[in-house]
Specification:
The chain has about 375 residues and is mostly beta strands. Helix content is about 5%, strand content about 40%. The structure holds beta-D-glucopyranose (BGC). Beta-D-glucopyranose (BGC) binds next to strand 24 and strand 27. The site of beta-D-glucopyranose has 10 residues, from strand 24 and strand 27.
Amino acid sequence: MKTSLRNVIVLAALAASIAGSATAGDKPECKMFGKTADGKEVMLFTLKNANGMTMEIMSYGCIVTKLTAPDRDGKFADVVLGYNTLEEYIKATPYFGAIVGRYGNRIAHGKFTLDGKEYTLFCNNSPGDIPCALHGGKVGFDKVVWDAEPVSKPGVQGVKMHYVSKDGEEGYPGNLDVTITHSLTDKNEYRLDYELKSDKATPANVTHHGYFNLKGEGNGDILGHELLIKADKTTPVDKGLIPTGALKPVKGTPFDFTTAHTIGERVNADDEQMKFGGGYDHNWVLNSQDGSLASAVEVFEPTTGRAMEVLTTEPGVQFYCGNFLDGSNVGKTGKPYKFRNGLCLETQHYPDSPNHPEFPSTIIQPGKTYKSTTIYRFSTRK
Ligand code: BGC
């Protein structure tokens, strides 16, 4: 049988409409989500892919408010924790779905020295009663309104978010120009492409702080999720959750996820590191350290069959299993998010690197653009 080009196009269009495809380069839908106290408009973008996935992201904090993924029977659930309204995000959030920065994770005592000068940051956190700057300080990247521009191409719906953090903001040097393109692809991926530039040397460690629950948000704890982390070492911490500087082999410890284990299996182990974090809240040193995009983590939820793979160009990942969730945040379907009801996989450089010259550098040098990519890829298994 001879197939003309016209027939191929008609068939492709038909197949796409059956699958509900909205990704032939279409722009994401965009609507007003609300206004901040100082009157800034916040936009909400709805991204869709050819396989029926939906992602919502807003210009306040680049917060992903919704991300749906199918289970092994094709049933969709929203797999990220969050709220329905901007007001709730402004009022109280443990960084649900947000971009954190300038510095994701902790800087000890809110201090670092760069090129002979000491800088002081706002300390907004104090594990073990030891103050530190966490996730950017008082008003981090999760609490500002980003410029947002829809960008799409065939097979990808995207939003480019842009923010310039002014010289001196939160105590950091240099005007830091940050562009993050967030995309939902027809390969069932949430993809983040980061580009950072500065006019003065400055530390930066920007990451996505989504809380995932592959059973669906609000459906209980994540302890039955199976996890595999492609890392032979972690950066152990002191009681202030600051890295000691050591790289500790995971072999023979509850931190060994080089083969898959459920999160619950060893989370309550009698282990000093686990006590400091109240569970898993540590940085794994990924085996891939050359800056290429490599698979870092695999997560599998056996009751639904949902799986998520995390790929990154970054050298580390903070695996945090929601130890500080205590039911006080009531989520978008009215259910309180309790202890360990969500898990974060924050691809990053190591915490407190500005005070650890032995760690890979987090300094953005003027005239150089720092680029980084992370992908959260969804699939299902039997
Ligand atoms: C940190 C936790 C912190 C949480 C804030 C995580 O990235 O590792 O220690 O409590 O963010 O919600």
